[in-house]
Write a structure and sequence with these properties.
Chain lengths: 169, 924
């Protein structure tokens, strides 16, 4: 039986943005457009920018860890936990829901597990991270916090056809 | 008449129900179309024609049938020969009065000669003043159903798709092409207009049905094929986008699929052409494919006594089907042997057919099989062409682009096996091309010979949707419209709902004959999207109207704030009493949600250089903990944005922008960093949404904020234009600014967003004894206007340079460089620009609306009012305005033209501020 579709609010997760150091360890771990899970989730969000997604309340640890690993180059590390809404869309029908709100190809060949892209979702700029859970299609969707409720409303509307459910984090 | 069960019937006889047509109840089975159920019950007339209101019945018995547009409930223009009937459905004829049987407007037939081509242009062109009257009358004759006053129930949806191969057409060739592409491991979107896959095999013989079973089984078992039935490709657009209209999508009324396939395969089969002869539009004249559909798919006997005019296998097969169905086939006229129909007789339906041998055969059914049209418009939309092949009496595809292929009947003729083989070959080639391999040739299916049969010896209807006859076309040619494109526009032939599918080739043939040119020389009209009519609802799709909400949004709603839409933000305009809110701020303390304020974190050793470059004023000496107001201009010196920037640490700054300018400034800064000064070490991080921003304003604001923070707020410890970091209401990592847009002592709190509402409520709770109250955007606008603070974009426009905005004090032309410096240096040397000034009407009760013109000498415009309000503090009207520099001297009286025509004197003030121009309250 196909995995049911569910939407989970993950906004409380720590989010730390790292700018710069495109030649360093972060780039090797997750090049632009890719994400890598290693305890926390390292997302190659920009050509010179990474987002570290980690458990709630761990911003200081993440910042310290990034600082400790810097190679002396110019980088900026900012806790952006409060700046973004983060939701997870999981289930076999997740690609079908994204196809309603986003023009990017979410087929396996174009956006496999670990793919990252930034595009318009229902008219707002958002970042999408394919981060499957136990073999089930799952996407993390990141948008400006002020658009969060709008994005959730849109996803619930688009997912109604697939009996989308809202799950607590 | 309903036949006994047929081997390939689409109806489910175990599910019977009733529906109403024209007020009467009729039986139906699940799987029936509206038209098939009515035809089974003996109904023959479904509509009246567009111009002459002649009775019309079934012709093609499919989606394109021009005589079967009906009203279903509130839905107009439903295709009765395609739409499946449902229990309880209410179906009505359209645009008839008083009834379908007795339609008064059929009197038009009596003046038919006067209604020839272009009669609108000839009849109603003069006198021009009477056109509105003509229009009212003509509107009563407009075709179509009734559009409901209210939006229909249900949803119209859209989605995107990215198949490797999109196959348009689910007949044998399309099915085979889809299978071949899928077997090559590609993703395929297979689209078919009918409710089931199969194309003409659906109404074929036992062999056809066996082949179809195999093909459908293979498609169902194949990985990678998504099937959309009751769906049609409406167009192919630039960049290879293919749009599909899906009508039976689950949960929605209609869905528009925006697909971007690597390769498009067009396999639409062929469309059977009507024969143009007198009486060819009477109910009872059927195409051979229609007769076969009715018998084999819907178990309907279409008549009692038939004449069949055949020129091909389809007509021959129809003879067999009709005979098997118990129809008395009284004459078979074989056009291949020179037989022909001269005229069809009847009034409400076929009564007899006059044959070319001079005989007249009494009958109620004429079935014609006179030729095929290849629907090439999708291919021509994609950049291909079509060429006329006289030997096959049809146009065929030619010169297709590499990412478009054609398969099956549209290309040529053959047995089912031939069509499948061709489809497979095309599918393989589509797979190769989708993988980026160079195109290889696919052997064409050869079109078989077919006699050229377009029109007979009498005048018939060519375009049944638009009621255009062969004589109308001939008349247009006689009037000089000898180009097929002009004939089309003059007569409206091919411009109706069928869009040329049935009538285009016949139109071309009639025009060719009338002009003495060949069909090839005459050419075709241009096929443009959409291929079939598309509802406005599905084009609109879901309405995406992004809105931004602050962390305190719920509180504002719960406390009765009147919402204001500012860009995408929903902001509290006021809480019921904006003037009272102003007074609270001036006399005590108020709080306002200013979260939309743009906030950009800047980090790096070169931030000061960046600020020096982008702002017109100085920044190099800004100390840690200090704040400065800055103005940004574009290269032409026009004011782009303003705001304050604070230095939070040695190389950390927080820049604020106007609410509306946040994104623009972010992009502006990034542009300079990335393209003009890439060597600078500066990183920008947008932080607008990271903080909930609350401005606490009023003489008691220090007292209020002091109750919630450990930051020393004493004037000497935290003077005006400073910034501090600390805790507020127990929330760490807050940024506290001492700035003031309202002109009052104020503190702006930037709180980590998740804690915004907590801090907001804490301020109201601990400040209750101070009389704290929330104030909205309207009160803020009044307060800032009283203080004379400009709003970029309201008090400036796309031409206002810094000096014109009264920002002389900020512009430092002695800096080495900054964006806009040369233009501002030039502006400073001129006096031919408008200057922002404070204005007060001489009559304090008159508030000139914003945008009122300031005039001179009675009518010459010399400026305008940019902001105006009644000031609760001063109890008089106060304004800002742009006026000609020569009129900007304080004490000058200018004239403002009000919307009602009154001219009122207005005094130019010494400064922009109307309240506390010295800034005593601000610095308190």
């Amino acid at each position: 039986m196909a995995e049911p579709l569910r939407l989970t609010d993950c906004t409380a997760l720590t989010k730390v943005l790292v700018r710069g150091g495109a030649d360093g360890a972060l780039a090797a771990g997750a090049p632009y457009g890719r994400a890598r899970r290693d305890g926390s989730l390292l997302v190659g969000l920009l050509p010179d920018g990474w987002l570290v997604i980690a458990p709630p309340g761990s911003a200081t640890d993440v910042v310290d860890r990034v600082d400790a690993g810097r190679d002396g180059g110019f980088i900026t590390v900012v806790d952006v936990t409060h700046a973004y809404t983060l939701v997870r869309l999981t289930g076999a029908a997740a690609p079908s829901v994204l196809e309603k709100v986003c023009s990017i190809d979410v087929a396996e060949a174009a956006t496999p597990d670990g793919a990252v892209f930034r595009s318009l979702l229902a008219g707002i700029t958002a970042s999408v991270v394919r981060d499957d859970e136990g073999g089930t299609r799952s996407y993390l969707l990141l948008c400006d916090r002020s658009y969060g409720q709008y994005l959730v409303d849109v996803l619930l509307d688009a997912g109604a056809e697939y009996d989308i459910g809202v799950h607590p984090h | 008449m309903r036949l006994p069960p047929q081997p390939g019937e689409a109806i489910d006889r175990t599910t019977a129900f009733t529906f109403t047509w024209d007020g009467r109840s009729y039986p139906a089975y699940a799987g029936d179309t509206i038209a098939s159920a009515l035809a089974a019950a003996g109904v023959r007339v479904f509509s009246r024609s567009l111009k002459y209101h002649r009775p019309r019945g079934l012709l093609t018995a499919d989606f394109h049938d021009p005589g079967c547009l009906v009203q279903v409930g509130d839905e107009p223009n439903v295709r009765a020969a395609h739409r499946r009937v449902e229990p309880g459905m209410t179906v009505r004829p359209q645009a008839v009065w008083p009834s379908l049987r007795w339609d008064v407007k059929s009197a038009n037939q009596l003046v038919g000669k006067a209604l020839t081509a272009g009669f609108y242009y000839k009849t109603f062109i003069k006198p021009r003043p009477l056109w509105p009257a003509y229009e009212r009358v003509l509107r009563r004759f407009s075709p179509g159903g009734e559009v409901p006053a209210e939006p229909p129930d249900g949803r119209y949806d859209q989605r995107y798709a990215h198949p490797d191969v999109l196959v348009a057409g689910g007949g044998p060739a399309g099915l085979a092409a889809a299978l071949a592409a899928a077997e090559a491991g590609l993703q395929v979107l297979l689209v078919d207009e009918q409710h089931e896959l199969g194309g003409h095999l659906l109404w074929g013989d036992d062999g056809d049905r066996a082949a179809l079973r195999d093909l459908r089984g293979a498609v169902a078992a194949a990985d990678g094929i998504e099937v959309l039935t009751d769906a049609v490709v409406t167009g192919r657009y630039d960049g290879g986008r293919v749009v599909v209209l899906q009508r039976s999508a689950p949960g929605v009324v209609e869905r528009l699929v925006k697909a971007r396939p690597r390769v498009l395969v067009a396999a639409p089969g062929l469309i059977e052409r009507p024969y143009v002869v007198a009486g060819n539009d009477l109910p009872g004249v059927l195409l051979s494919t229609a007769a076969r559909r009715l018998v084999n798919r819907y178990a309907v006997r279409p008549g009692q006594r038939a004449v069949v005019l055949t020129a091909n296998n389809s007509g021959d097969a129809a003879v067999g089907d009709l005979t098997r169905a118990g129809v008395d086939v009284r004459r078979v006229l074989d056009a291949r042997r020179g037989d022909d129909v001269v005229r069809v007789r009847g009034r409400r339906g076929v009564r007899a057919v006059e044959c070319s041998d001079g005989s007249t055969v009494a009958c109620d059914l004429l079935v014609t099989a006179v030729g095929w049209t290849a629907p090439t418009s999708l291919l021509t939309m994609a950049g291909g062409r079509s060429r006329y092949l006289a030997s096959a009496a049809r146009f065929v595809p030619a010169d297709l682009p590499d990412d478009v292929l054609a398969a099956g009947g549209i290309v040529g003729d053959g047995s089912t096996a031939d069509l499948v083989a061709h489809g497979r070959a095309v599918g393989h080639e589509a797979a190769r091309r989708a993988r980026g391999l160079p195109p290889a040739h696919v052997a064409d299916l050869e079109p078989g010979p077919h006699p050229e049969l377009f029109h007979g010896r009498s005048n018939g209807i060519v375009d049944l949707a638009e009621d255009v006859s062969a004589d109308d076309l001939r008349a247009a040619v006689a009037e000089g419209y000898d180009s097929i494109e002009l004939v089309k526009r003059y007569t409206t032939a091919t411009m109706g709902p069928t869009q040329g599918k049935l009538e285009a080739v016949n139109t071309i043939a009639v025009v060719a004959a009338a002009t003495g040119r060949s069909i090839e020389e005459t050419g075709t009209t241009t096929g443009r999207p959409p291929y079939v009519p598309v509802s406005l609802g599905v084009l609109a799709g879901r309405r995406y109207q992004p809105v931004r909400r602050s962390p305190m949004h719920t509180w504002h709603v719960e406390h009765g704030a009147t919402p204001l839409v500012a860009g995408a933000w929903i902001r509290p305009d006021h809480y019921g009493d904006p003037a009272g809110e102003v007074c609270a701020v001036r006399q005590g303390v108020g709080i306002i949600d200013v979260t939309p304020l743009g906030k950009l974190a800047l980090h790096g050793p070169d931030v000061a250089d960046l600020l020096e470059l982008l702002y017109v004023n100085r920044w190099r000496k800004l100390a840690v903990g200090s704040v400065r107001y800055g103005v940004m201009c574009t290269e032409d010196g026009v004011v782009l944005d303003d705001g304050v920037t604070g230095r939070l640490g040695e190389d950390r700054y927080l820049m604020t922008t106007t609410s509306s300018g946040a994104t623009t400034v972010e992009h502006w800064v990034e542009r300079w960093l990335q393209t003009e000064r890439p060597h600078w070490q500066v990183h920008l991080v947008p932080m607008t949404d990271a903080y909930a921003s609350i401005n606490v304003a009023g003489p008691r604001s220090r007292e209020l904020v002091g109750r919630l923070t450990d930051i020393d707020l004493a004037p000497e410890a935290f003077p005006y234009m400073r910034v501090r970091l600390g805790r507020v209401a127990g929330v760490a990592d807050c940024v506290v600014w001492r700035i003031g847009f309202t002109g009052e002592l104020s503190f702006e709190l930037h709180v980590p967003a998740a804690f915004g509402q907590r801090v907001w409520e804490a301020l109201l709770e601990v400040g209750a004894d101070l009389g704290v109250r929330p104030f909205g955007v309207e009160a803020q606008r009044i307060l800032r206007l009283e203080k004379g603070h400009l709003i970029v974009g309201q008090d400036t426009d796309g031409l206002t340079q810094a000096y014109g905005a009264g920002l002389d004090w900020a512009v430092k032309l002695d800096k080495d460089d900054f964006v806009g410096k040369p233009e501002l240096a030039w502006q400073r040397a001129r006096d031919d620009y408008l200057v922002l000034v404070g204005l007060q009407p001489v009559d304090p009760a008159v508030v000139p609306p914003e945008s009122c013109q300031i005039i001179e000498d009675g009518q010459r415009i010399v400026g305008r009012v940019t902001s105006s309000r009644m000031s609760p503090t001063l109890d008089r009207a106060v304004c800002l305005g742009l006026v000609a520099a020569r009129l900007s001297e304080p004490g000058t009286t200018v004239t403002v033209l009000l919307p009602d025509g009154r001219r009122v004197p207005v005094l130019v003030m010494p400064q922009l501020a109307h309240v506390d121009p010295e800034g005593v309250r601000l610095r308190g």
